Amino acid sequence: KYLLAKEQGHKGNSTETGGWHYSMEEMLQLGQHCSMTERRADEATREVSDWLKCDFMQDQVGNTFSGVIASVTGFGFFVRLNDLFIDGLVHVSSLDNDYYRFDQVGQRLIGESGGQTYRLGDRVEVRVEAVNMDERKIDFSLISSERAPRNVGKTAREKAKKSTSGKPGGRRRQVGKQVNFEPDSAFRKEKDQAKAKPKGEKKAKKPSAKTQKIAAATKAKRAAKKKIAE
């Protein structure tokens, strides 16, 4: 609106239609203010959502729910309840059947003695132990766990690729492996004839022209000596 009014010859920062001209410095300040306000609104939304979840779970203390392990940390793992989408913590101290080590690469807890493992995606059954309204925290205790199937979430192409990768053969060429074949009768006959030839027998070679000249000269000298001797 301000630009249109300026083209029509209007002067000043404001226009009759509601336009207003801001400098670059004012625009930067307004942008920072809008970003800060948006972040505060997001934080307030999360706080209200967490408070409502804790308020609901206060009446569920002692009840059991089924869920899925959503994240794993060094101090335990968080379980997201099915249908409710509420997260709670199963602290590692409540797993008193073994000492558990956190595998950061595999995102799992591994028992040192028994080998029990808790990882992302495992289906578990938990009981609500406590709810802290001030800290917006929900504590669970583990009742049972079940390993999630491995093929869940994979496409049909990935499954087919995995099933055929372990089969031998195919069109891939095996490098370095000798191929066994059965020679025919003609090949065997030629091979046997080559073996039957005596080792001392050699093929006669035709003398070269130089050798022939030397032999002729030697023969002529011998004839001349023989003639003189007679």
TrEMBL record:
**Listed Low complexity bias regions:** 209-218
The molecular function GO annotations come to:
mRNA binding; structural constituent of ribosome
Q: Which InterPro entries match?
A: NA-bd_OB-fold, Ribos_protein_bS1-like, S1_domain
- Identify the stretch(es) annotated as Disordered: 149-230
Which superkingdom, per the lineage?
Bacteria
Which intervals carry biased composition (Basic residues)? 159-175, 219-230
One Pfam family matching this protein = S1
Q: Which residues form a coiled coil?
A: none
Report biased composition (Basic and acidic residues) as residue ranges. Answer: 185-201
According to the entry, every stretch annotated as the S1 motif domain falls at 62-143
Biological process (GO), any one: translation
CDD domains, per the entry: S1_RNase_R (cd04471)
Name of the protein this chain belongs to: Ribonuclease R
| Species assigned in the record | Klebsiella variicola
